[in-house]
C-alpha cells in the first residue's frame, strides 16, 4: 500500500471515530479529534525528512568503504576524460542491495522508485565527504609500488617481503601473520585491472602454498575480474585496505572471496 492512501485512511478513520465520539461527549472529544488529525498531518509532512535521514544514516555507516570504492572505480583515461562507470555501477548496487531493504523494512517502500535519484545523490555526497589519504603518495613505478604495498602490510603487522622479479610465479609480495600466508600481486594502473591478474595470483597462491590471495591496485577492477575473484576466493583491494587487512584462512578456489575490510 502506498504512503498517500495510508495517510488518507488514517485521516478518514480518525475523523469518523472522533466525530462519533464528539457527538456523544461533545467539545472535548471534538478537540481531541482535531489534535489527532493535526498530529497525523505533521507526521505525514515530516515523512520526507525522516526518509532522507534514514538513507543518510545507512550511507554514513559505510562511508569510508564507499569513499574507497569511489576512488577505486574512477580513473582518467589517456584522453584526459574522467571515467566513473565502475563507481556509478557500485553506487547503484549499494542503493539497491543495502539501502532499499532497510528503508522498505522501515515503512518507506513507496519511496523507493520515485526517490531513487535522491538516494543516489545522498550516497554520492556521503562518499565525497570522506577525506582519504592522498592517492598520489603511491609510487608510479611498478617495483616501487610493490615495495610501497609491502611496507603498508608490514605496518599492519604482517611479515611481508617483495619477491624476486623472476621466478615469482605471479606473486609480487608474500606476507605472513598469525600463521596465515598471504600472496599478493600489485598493479599500479591508470585503468581498472582485468581478470588476468586474478588468474595469476590464484595460481601463485597455490605455488607458494598460500592461505589468502589478493590483487592490490590503485585503480578499480573490471566486472569480469570481480566475477572471477568471487569464484576463486581472491580478494580485490585498494592499497589503502592494507592498513586494516586481517588474516583469513581462505585458499583461492575453495570458497568465497576474502572480503576487504569494511
Automatic annotation (TrEMBL):
The chain crosses the membrane at residues 30-46. GO terms for biological process: DNA restriction-modification system. It comes from the Bacteria. Keywords: Endonuclease, Hydrolase, Membrane, Nuclease, Transmembrane, Transmembrane helix. GO terms for molecular function: DNA binding; restriction endodeoxyribonuclease activity. Gene3D superfamilies: 3.40.1350.10. The keyword Ubl conjugation does not apply. Residues 144-245 form the Restriction endonuclease type IV Mrr domain. PANTHER family: MRR RESTRICTION SYSTEM PROTEIN, SLL1429 PROTEIN. This is Restriction endonuclease. It comes from Methylobacterium soli.
Amino acid at each position: 500500500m502506498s504512503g498517500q492512501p495510508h495517510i488518507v485512511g488514517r485521516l478518514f478513520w480518525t475523523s469518523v471515530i472522533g466525530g462519533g465520539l464528539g457527538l456523544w461527549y461533545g467539545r472535548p472529544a471534538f478537540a481531541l479529534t482535531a489534535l489527532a488529525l493535526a498530529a497525523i498531518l505533521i507526521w505525514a509532512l515530516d515523512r520526507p525528512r525522516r526518509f532522507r535521514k534514514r538513507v543518510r544514516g545507512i550511507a554514513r555507516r559505510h562511508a569510508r568503504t564507499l569513499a574507497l570504492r569511489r576512488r577505486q572505480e574512477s580513473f582518467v583515461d589517456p584522453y584526459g576524460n574522467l571515467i566513473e562507470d565502475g563507481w556509478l555501477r557500485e553506487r547503484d548496487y549499494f542503493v539497491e542491495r543495502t539501502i532499499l531493504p532497510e528503508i522498505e523494512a522501515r515503512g518507506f517502500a513507496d519511496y523507493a522508485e520515485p526517490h531513487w535519484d535522491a538516494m543516489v545523490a545522498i550516497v554520492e555526497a556521503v562518499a565525497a565527504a570522506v577525506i582519504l589519504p592522498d592517492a598520489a603518495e603511491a609510487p608510479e613505478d611498478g617495483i616501487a609500488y610493490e615495495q610501497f604495498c609491502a611496507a603498508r602490510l608490514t605496518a599492519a603487522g604482517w611479515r611481508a617481503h617483495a619477491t624476486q622479479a623472476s621466478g615469482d610465479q605471479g606473486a609480487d609480495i608474500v606476507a605472513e601473520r598469525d600463521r596465515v600466508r598471504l600472496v599478493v600481486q600489485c598493479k599500479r594502473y591508470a585503468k581498472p585491472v582485468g581478470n588476468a591478474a586474478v588468474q595469476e595470483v590464484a595460481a601463485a597462491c597455490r605455488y607458494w602454498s598460500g592461505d589468502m590471495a589478493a590483487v592490490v591496485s590503485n585503480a578499480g577492477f573490471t566486472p569480469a575480474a570481480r566475477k572471477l575473484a568471487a569464484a576463486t576466493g581472491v580478494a580485490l583491494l585498494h592499497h589503502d585496505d592494507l592498513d586494516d587487512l586481517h588474516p583469513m584462512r581462505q585458499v583461492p578456489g575453495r570458497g568465497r572471496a576474502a572480503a576487504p575490510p569494511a
